[in-house]
């Protein structure tokens, strides 16, 4: 999205830096053509870019090389020798440019890195020479015998390239972490954390590198120093990104990170922004999608303090973003155990969340409503929830959520709307075991809406999970209020086995033939 929003001329100027004339680059072998007196001007020009900018340029160049190597393998498979050669020349140019660009801004690079640079350049030259010989012969036997050799060389180039990029990124992560650990200057530390955060946005692999190099340890060290309080939000945001990988979780456990997060959340002297970012870290490390859960034992020890602080943050949130982060953390926590749900009940969380939903400035997106209804669905297993729902006009809210539709058509938003519909139906089904809730649902006309969702695929965006949840809710309400359904609805949606009703509804797609 960022690239799309950038001015087209600016985008062209950025891409221009990565364009090279292959023939010229081959002849010059990437040697600078400036005379000595111009070297200072080059240094001045390069110093205009920050470490973060240089790394972004490096990563963009690396992505181009990786893409080109994949395409070479595809062309090689089809024996398109001319294309293979021209692309090999282009890769050779990009590799040399990448190494030159990196060496212009890097500091104290290791001997191992220089060795890999030389190995990669030599292997690229060998690769180019091989492909050049291929376009100079038409003998099929010779080409066939050379193909395996070229394949082997291509694999080696890719291997050396991958190892060099790994070394470069590790080296840069080490440099940034060294700055964070050794500097007591707020501005230098802020710049280093900002660059580190940019690296974490490049994917899980970079997060693993940062975690292995002690990134989580260094960042929690910042969060324990009062002199860096103004950097807490930025530091916690970076921590949340790193903790998406298992290595980050291991580091968090080693440094008692959860205790530190609990201290931040319960300290009222911290800003709302700091509390919100701490909530984001909690949401990340408690995600039900994570397969690694070793850290959860220490989380359970601090759960009461954390849950209390998060409920307070939901109640006092000044913006939709703050509420979203706090409610997302609470939603994830409710998947742990019914103890968390009981805790929320004692803290009047149900009342607070239902009240927040009536404020369109706070609960302003399907994503926020998704978090709220997740909490309601998980809490609805408790019998005491029914009275709270009735008192807070919760049944009306659940009905409104059954009408959730995306206004933008964005795929992520559409998926969030489906989750809201599904979970509101699940919550209704669970709570309707209480006659008072079932009676309220019938009076508010929940049954016609559930029937509509079952019978109309477009109303539920063709979602099977929404259909199953609506059928379950409808059957529960039909037991409590059989007069609310017409005979045809009862015969098709309630009386058969659930799987038969499901198959009937999924075959109700409109035909335009």
UniProtKB/TrEMBL annotation:
BP terms from Gene Ontology: apical protein localization; asymmetric cell division; establishment of mitotic spindle orientation; regulation of asymmetric cell division
Protein inscuteable homologue C-terminal domain segment(s): 61-513
GO cellular component, one term: apical cortex
Pfam families, sorted: Insc_C, INSC_LBD
SMART domains attached to this UniProt entry: ARM (SM00185)
Domain named Protein inscuteable homologue LGN-binding: residues: 4-48
Record GO terms (molecular function): cytoskeletal anchor activity
Coiled-coil intervals, chain numbering: none
Name of the molecule in the record: INSC protein
Source organism of the structure: Casuarius casuarius (Southern cassowary)
């Amino acid at each position: 999205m960022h690239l799309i929003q950038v001015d087209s001329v600016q985008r062209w100027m950025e891409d221009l830096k990565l364009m090279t004339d292959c023939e010229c680059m081959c002849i010059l072998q990437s040697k600078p053509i400036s005379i000595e007196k111009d070297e200072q001007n080059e240094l001045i020009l390069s110093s205009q870019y920050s470490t973060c900018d240089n790394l972004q340029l490096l990563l963009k160049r690396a992505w181009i090389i990786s893409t080109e190597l994949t395409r070479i393998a595809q062309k090689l498979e089809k024996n398109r020798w001319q294309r293979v050669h021209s692309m090999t020349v282009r890769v050779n140019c990009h590799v040399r440019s990448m190494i030159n660009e990196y060496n212009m801004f890097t500091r104290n690079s290791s001997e191992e890195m220089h060795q890999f640079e030389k190995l990669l350049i030599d292997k690229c030259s060998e690769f180019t020479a091989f492909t050049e010989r291929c376009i100079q012969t038409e003998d099929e036997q010779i080409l066939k015998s050379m193909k395996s050799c070229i394949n082997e060389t291509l694999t080696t180039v890719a291997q050396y390239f991958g190892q060099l990029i790994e070394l470069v990124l590790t080296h840069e992560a080490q440099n940034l972490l060294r700055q964070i650990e050794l500097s007591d200057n707020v501005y230098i530390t802020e710049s280093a954390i900002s660059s580190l955060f940019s690296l974490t946005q490049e994917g899980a692999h970079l997060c693993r590198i940062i975690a292995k190099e002690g990134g989580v340890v260094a960042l929690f060290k910042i969060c324990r120093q009062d002199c860096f309080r103004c950097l807490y939000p930025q530091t916690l945001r970076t921590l949340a990104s790193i903790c998406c990988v298992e290595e980050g979780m291991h580091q968090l456990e080693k440094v008692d990170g959860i205790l530190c997060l609990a201290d931040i959340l319960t300290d009222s002297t911290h800003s709302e922004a700091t509390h919100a970012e701490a909530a984001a870290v909690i949401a990340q490390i408690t995600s039900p999608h994570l397969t690694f859960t070793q850290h959860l034992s220490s989380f359970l020890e601090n759960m009461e303090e954390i849950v209390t602080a998060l409920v307070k943050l939901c109640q006092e949130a000044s913006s939709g973003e703050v509420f979203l982060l706090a409610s997302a953390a609470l939603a994830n926590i409710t998947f742990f155990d019914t103890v968390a749900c009981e805790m929320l009940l004692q803290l009047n969380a149900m009342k607070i969340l239902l009240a927040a939903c009536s404020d369109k400035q706070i609960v302003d997106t399907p994503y926020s409503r998704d978090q709220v209804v997740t909490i309601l669905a998980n809490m609805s297993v408790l019998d005491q929830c029914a009275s709270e729902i009735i008192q807070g006009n919760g049944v009306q809210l659940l009905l409104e959520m059954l009408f959730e539709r995306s206004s933008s058509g964005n795929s992520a938003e559409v998926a969030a709307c489906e989750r809201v519909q599904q979970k509101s139906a699940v919550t209704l089904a669970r709570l309707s075991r209480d006659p008072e809730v079932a009676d309220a649902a019938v009076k508010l006309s929940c049954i016609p809406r559930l029937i509509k969702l079952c019978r109309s695929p477009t109303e539920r965006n063709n979602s099977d999970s929404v259909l199953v949840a609506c059928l379950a809710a409808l059957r529960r309400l039909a037991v409590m209020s059989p007069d609310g359904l017409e005979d045809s609805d009862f015969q098709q949606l309630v009386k058969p086995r659930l799987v038969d009703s499901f198959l009937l509804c999924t075959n109700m797609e409109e035909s335009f033939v």
